Amino acid sequence: MTPAMKRACSVEAATRSVLVSAFRFACGAALLGGVLCASAGPAIAQERTPIQPPQPTVPEIFTIEGQFVRVAYNNEGYVTLGYRAANYSMGQEWMLLEVGVTIRKGVKSQTLTREAFSLKTPDGKTLPMATQTEYGAADLRGIQMYADASRDSINYFPAGVTRPCRIGFFSDLDKKTLSFDKVELNSLNGCLGRIYFKVPGGIQVGQHWLVVQFAESIVEVPFRILTKEEEKEFRKTWEDIKKEHEESLK
Question: Over the stretch 133-152, which tens digit does the pLDDT of each residue have?
Fold first, then answer.
């Protein structure tokens, strides 16, 4: 092989490496936005369709704080979400979500009832949060043990939040805790807890939204249930996607 041919091969290899890296990054962004990627192959150099992030139906900002951690907020309410256990439960009838809620500085104290929480699924349905009776009749020890062992921190509240409080919509008899049908919010309290949804037909792959109705506005938290292949790819790229998404908000 002549020196000129060697240089040409080197340039071609370097170009393909850059294209593959760009493809992987775009796939990660697509996973965040609920778009599937095709396999990298000879057509990788073709022009890609621009990746679109999730599109909430209300004015808000959302951010990525971990592979399975999302935050969304507006001028009134602030919601953090951990959904690793939900992603693990694909196909199962019960969804467990780790949730944190508070209100912004200057907003008057308010009360959220269990009716304030709902779930939008990929097939367009809106599901209410489960009742304590439904929860008590189900055997959720398996998913709860998984959530205990693999819990992500969702403590990403605004700087002014200094006091913890419990979201206690659900209780277990063996833990001697009471369940409550409401949670009291003020701008100093960051309330944390688990909430559950019964999903007829099982949890689907695709874009979901946790919807929280505050006194005067709605916050929609986007999260996508991933296949094993998508989760593997997103695990490699979510930090880069987080940086790019945050740059887009500036």
Answer: 999 999 999 999 999 999 99
